[in-house]
Predict the 3D structure of the following.
Amino acid sequence: MSRIQHRGIVESLESDVVKVKVQKESACAACHAKGLCGEKGAERIIEVRTPNAQEYCVGERVIVALEHGKMGLTSLLWAYIFPLIVLLGVLFGAHGLGFEDGTAATASIVATAVYYVAIYLLRGYFERKIKFTIIKE
């Protein structure tokens, strides 16, 4: 199974969390998911839960990896595909029920916002499902 990997530097440590600052790499240009990826900025912080977080030091170079198979697809579905289905489903459903265009559009935007609030409230579930691993470089 292939893995998505980023090189980074340990930014901070907590009891069981290592926060790693990763730079967007040139390899992103060749990635098949580059158009859908939320990786727009030059750098970002990834939180890696690990029972041996104290083995790392601030400033240490590490590699953060995500198994590309099921977890990558799961992230893509929950972040982009399902909200699109909610948006279009409510839009066409409300329009099909006879609501005016403005009302149907507003309802679809509100439904999508509710979807993202629900995702935010369920973030603990997703943190347990989508796991990063950390390796010393």
